[in-house]
Each structure stands twice: as structure tokens, then as C-alpha cells.
């Protein structure tokens, strides 16, 4: 019994030391070491302590006795006895903090009020007031920034409201114009169709006339050629008919050295027969029909130079009659084009030069063509106007459909682009439009994505947006950028990185994000600017 009495007394003394001896001589509310104020009511020295998870109930003296009794470690908030316990530092003057109780008295200062190292090998200073002061200064600076930014944000909101009203009005006006413009377009379409129908008929007639004329010219040309060809053939006939008896014999052909096909120095019977087309003798019509097509190429290939002419053309030096005049031969050669002989066989195949004929329109046709052109122009104009209005309507609708923030404040960033040089690239952001990247050394821009959507958290939907569907990454996803938004006094792209290949991250500051709201006041309240009592 006496032993039990001393045991309880010892426990009490230890407990008193562990529980309450840490108090800094300040006005902090008395409670066991490591317990946050919010949980003070669970630690009533007048009652047994019930583990916070309900796993056990122990005499209050066993709280913070450096022995772990509760499964959740809640009986040892101020010692390192439980591996899962939590130690609360009040950090008066700064921000309260909860650390794993295993860090209590581990020789490392975790709390600025030094409360975690109350029985430690090292001495920690209490610098909460200095830290609190620093934090307050920073917070004030931040609040000042917020205030300034918020003022700009208010102007953004006002401008956006005005812009949205204007957009709505413009949209209505355009929509009402739309019907009128569409009916004009339809009317012009009808007029154009009718005019084109008449134009088509007139042009068909006109083309038929042109075709007829072309045929006439072609026939004429053919006839002329045939005449020329016959004349040329007749001339050659006369030259070859050396005795001028109206008949070309094989001997006469043999006397023309150019008929020496195998170049053996003389024209054989066979060679002569080749050019007579197998006939023993030729009168003019037979010559024209059978022999001329074979002879003509020889005549046309007459050598140009005088000496050659002498040696090649002269059948007999002494007989000037047998010499074919070079000029004559060449003249005729030039003239010889396609000429179809009466028998239907072309003497020398050539092409007609009459490929097409272009006739000027007669007056009525010209009038119909002009009218159709005017109708087309007018229709195109009306159609263009209609398309312009459609495009404009769609643009305005997109503006009205876009989420420019809770009060439209982000509309101020539309039609603006921001750039930042980071590592080897220049990164660009055009909010609500596109994002891109280009090498600092030049070259083309790589599309990193087009406007996607806001993807912020539940608390702040507008803290992030995504630009998506950029250029496909080789063996990877289409490029995309997540843009993290924060408050700044000016619009500025602050950072750009590529945390995963082809997945980029931008940090963007803007006054549009400077919202002076409840959460700021709440977070300010977390600072223990005053003592708890
Ligand atoms: C380019 C750039 C890089 C990207 C690679 C992927 O070099 O767009 O940012 O990582 O392509 O191949």
C-alpha cells in the first residue's frame, strides 16, 4: 500500500514536470505539453483520460508520462514515447505548428518557441516574435500588392462589363442584319443564275461560230498546202525528168546522186526503184502520188553549202539541167507542210496551224457576257458580306461563351501576348488564344497549345488554365501548357519549364488574380499576433 502511494506520488511529480513545466512564464492557457488549444477540453486533469481514438481510458496522471498507452498516441502529445503521436507548438507570435512527437527532444529545433526541445541536449532560442514580425512585414507587402492589383482588377472588371455589353449589342445588330443580307444574297444568286443561263446560250452559239470559222480556215489551209505541195512536186518532177519528155525513167532517177542510199558512189536500180516506189517510169500524177513522199525528204535534206551542193546535187557536171537549185529546194522544203493528197494519203505529214480561232463577241453576246459578269460580281459581294457577318457573329459568340473569370477580369488579357526567355527558348503566352516556344537562335515557333479551359481547384477554379492540342511530340503527347496564375501588379510571364517531355508549365502574374477576399483575412488570423489570453 505504502509502495503504491509512493508510486502514484512519483508519477504525479513526473507528470507535473512533463505536463506543465514548459510554460514560458507567459499567459498561455494551461494544458498538457504538446496539446493544441482546440483539444484542451479532452485533457481534463480532474478526469481519467480517454484516448482520442477511444482505444483506452487511463488515469490522467499517465498523460505525458513518457509511456505510450493509446493506440493513436494521444496520451503522449508532449513526449516522443508514441511513434504516431503529434506535438503541437504554440509558437506564440508566429504560426502554430504540429510536428510528429518523435521529433520532441531529438536535438533539432523544430518549433520557433523551442518547446519541442524542452529536455534536450541542445538549447533552442525562441525566435517566434522575430519570425512573426518578418511574416507580418511580408504579409503587409503582399496585402499592399493585393490592394494595388485589386484596384487594377476592378478596372478590368469594369472594362469587361462594358465590352460584354457592347459585344451583346453588336451581336444583336448583326443578327438582325443577317436576314436582310441573306435575302439579298439569295436574290443576287437568282439573278446571277438567270444571267449565266443566257450567257451560256450566247457563248455556245459564239463558240459554234468560231468552230465553223476554224474549220473553214483549216480547209482553206489544206487546199493551199495541197496546191503548194503539187507545185513543189511538179518542179522536182521537171528537174528529175532531165529529157523533159513528161516521164521520169529509172535511168533518170539513177542520175541523181542523192538517191545513193548506201553511199557506194552510184545509184543502183534498186535504189532508183525505191524512189519510184517500184515503178519503171513515172508520169507527173504517179510521181506525186507514189514517189513524191519518198523523194521529198531527200530534197528537203539537201546540203546547204555550195561545195556540197556541187558534189551532191550535180548529176552531171556538164549538164546544168540536172542541177537542182538549192534555193528552190529549200524554199519548197520550208513551204512543205502537211498536205493530204487527193487520194487521202498525206504527201508529207504535217500539222494544221489553225488550232483555234478567237472571234470578238458580237454586240448582243457582249451585252449578255457583261450582264452575267455584273451579276456574278454583285452576287460575290453579297456572299462576301454574308460570310463576313457570319464570321463576326461567330467571333462575338465565342467571346460571350468564353469564361473570362468570375467577373470577367481576365478578359483584359485577351488579344495580348507575353514572352519570356528561359534556357534555350523564348516562351510565349497569348491567353485565350495560344502558347508557343521558339529557339533563342531563331527558327520557327513550335505550337505548345491553344486555349483550353480553366482547371483550378474547387476552392479557386481560376488559379490555373490549360493550353492544349499543340504540336504532337515525337513519340509522345500533343504539347500542352498548364498556366499557373497568381496576383501581380502587372501582367507578366514569370517562369516557364517543361516538367515532363512536351508538358510545359508557365507561371503568370496578373492583377486579374488579385482578389481581396475572406481567405486572406482567414490566413492572417492564423498568425498568433497576441498571446492566447
Ligand atoms: C523540342 C522542344 C522541346 C521538347 C522536344 C521533344 O526540342 O519542343 O521542348 O522537349 O522538342 O522532342
From TrEMBL:
Residues 415-516 form the MRH domain. Residues 304-363 are annotated as: Disordered. GO terms for molecular function: calcium ion binding. GO terms for biological process: N-glycan processing. Residues 228-263 form the EF-hand domain. Keywords: Calcium, Coiled coil, Disulfide bond, Endoplasmic reticulum, Signal. Residues 157-233, 365-399 form a coiled coil. It comes from the Eukaryota. One of its GO terms (cellular component) is glucosidase II complex. It holds the Pfam family PRKCSH-like. Residues 314-340 have a biased composition (Acidic residues). Transmembrane segments: none annotated. CDD domains: LDLa (cd00112). This is Glucosidase 2 subunit beta.
